[in-house]
Amino acid sequence: MKNLKLLACAVTVIAASYAPASLAEPPMDKYNSSCAVCHATGVAGAPKTGDVAAWQPRLEKGMEQMMQSVNGGLNAMPPKGMCFNCSDEDYQALIEYMSSPAE
């Protein structure tokens, strides 16, 4: 039984090290300093972080369209969402984080 637990632990560690890039941790400092201002509470119609249903119609348009919206601004969201030092990879990780179910 002890060997089975060790094997399960080893498999978990190995699997985590091979996680796809799309599951990368979002830059939480950037989320907290820019995105959370509106997305934590839904200010001005922003889809709330963790509200999968609110994000679904936006995600259905595809990541390319999402990135155009972020970079150019949309409705009350200013261009770049006030994160002027975010890379495209940062934005994608933040979008994935905000559109995932709340834990």
Automatic annotation (TrEMBL):
Q: MF terms per GO, please?
A: electron transfer activity; heme binding; iron ion binding
Cytochrome c domain mapped to chain residues: 22-102
Record keywords: Electron transport, Heme, Iron, Metal-binding, Signal, Transport
Keyword Heme: yes or no? yes
What SUPFAM superfamilies does the annotation carry? Cytochrome c
Taxonomically, the superkingdom here is Bacteria
Signal sequence annotation: 1-24
Query: Could you tell me which PANTHER family the record lists for this protein?
Result: CYTOCHROME-RELATED (PTHR40942:SF2), PTHR40942
Q: What is this protein called?
A: Cytochrome c5 family protein
Query: Whose protein is this, by species?
Result: Sediminihaliea albiluteola
